[in-house]
Specification:
The chain is an alpha/beta fold. It is 48% helix and 17% strand. It has an eight-stranded mixed sheet with strand order 7-5-6-4-1-2-3-8, sandwiched between helices.
Length: 331
């Protein structure tokens, strides 16, 4: 867990790039040279001590050996290997927890967030912004269904959540030392990172960019995983669905009351011939369905509460190899 000493993140002339990688053996050798060139440039223009932390999120391919080879060739690289696949959000959390000085920048391993933009992020940080986030103007190499569902998702969560979550914004961002320290204090298990960044606040600015296709490999996020991520986002950052269930209940009760009055009046005026089995079935099935949905909703929240109450560590570390370093201090 992150050390909470008063001088944490005190030095702000360090920039650590955090990359979560899950089965990225093909992409990493393409990414690292690009990243290294950019970091050389940033180090020269801004006088920053640049580092990289690669987090191997329990990969089952050659990612770890590829990372070891890369680290052997560059003293700025630190390696972190998790005990199994914990998912991107927790892998990033693990990586960020291991940045104990300066700012952090989050980058995807697949080159979809171009490292060449890092200098623009750093400039904004140097201008005093705490949360510099990349906003996608365009997503190349992704089908209309993915783009459409992502578009809809950001609009829905934007309406439901009180926490500001900028639309079309991924995890590509730079966090200033104080934003990073603040994020380190949010230890919840169900982590929708974009929401957590939004919750932290401070001075925020967007850097628009074109999202490129992957350099190699395939996306790790199937539609099913994206759907689960969306559920996670909504239940972690909004209780609106619970309120919706209440309103739906109220509305149904009101309609049922009106209908009840009408049935009684009709029976008084015209007698009560027995009929209406189809209507009764329709109403019972409809109400049964609505009740099950409401129960399911409560269950979603309850399940998360249960996970939270277990107080397990967020992730477990297999290996931590600090960077051998280029200047003072250790990563
Ligand atoms: N990733 C990870 N753990 C996972 C899944 C993905 O660390 O369980 C990493 C992956 O290696 C990549 C980033 O998260 O660096 C984004 O994944 P991907 O490119 O598959 O997602 P997409 O860009 O398609 O949304
Ligand atoms: Mg990707």
């Amino acid at each position: 867990m992150r050390p909470m000493s008063a001088d944490t993140h005190a030095t702000d002339n360090r920039l650590t790039v955090v990359v979560a990688a899950f089965n990225e053996a093909e992409s990493l050798p393409v990414l690292q040279p690009r990243l290294a060139a950019v970091l050389d440039d940033v180090a020269a223009t801004h006088g920053l001590d640049c580092r990289v932390v690669y987090v191997d999120d329990g990969s089952t391919d050659a990612t770890w050996s590829v990372l070891q080879a890369l680290a052997a060739g560059d003293r700025r690289i630190a390696l972190l290997r998790l005990s199994r696949n914990f998912g991107k959000e927790l892998a990033l959390t693990a990586g960020l927890d291991h940045v104990d000085q300066g700012a952090a920048l989050i980058l995807d391993a697949d080159g979809q967030d171009p490292p060449e933009l890092i200098p623009r992020f750093v400039e904004q940080w140097r201008c005093g912004y705490d949360d510099v986030f990349g906003t996608r103007i365009e997503r190349e190499g992704e089908g209309w269904l993915k783009r459409g569902s992502a578009h809809a998702f950001y609009r829905v969560i934007g309406r439901l959540s009180k926490t500001p979550i900028p639309a079309d914004t991924g995890d590509f961002r730079l966090l200033s030392p104080r934003a990073l320290a603040a994020l380190g204090r949010l230890r919840e298990r169900h982590r929708f990172m974009k929401g957590l960044f939004g919750w932290v606040g401070f001075n925020r600015v967007a850097v628009p960019y074109h999202r490129e296709p992957r350099v190699a490999g395939t996306s790790k996020f199937s539609y099913w995983r994206l759907w689960n991520l969306a559920l996670e986002a909504i239940t972690s950052f909004s209780t609106a669905p619970l309120r919706l269930a209440t309103y739906l209940g109220l509305l149904t009760a009101m309609v049922a009351f009106g209908y009840g009055v009408w049935v009684v009046v009709k029976a008084l005026a015209f007698g009560d011939p027995v009929q209406g089995w189809p209507t009764m079935m329709a109403v019972i099935l409809f109400l049964g369905g609505v009740q099950l949905i409401a129960l399911g909703l409560i269950g979603e929240y309850l399940g998360r509460l249960y996970d939270e109450s277990k107080q397990r560590p967020l992730y477990l570390i297999d290996t931590w190899r600090p960077a051998s370093g280029v200047s003072s201090g250790q990563v």
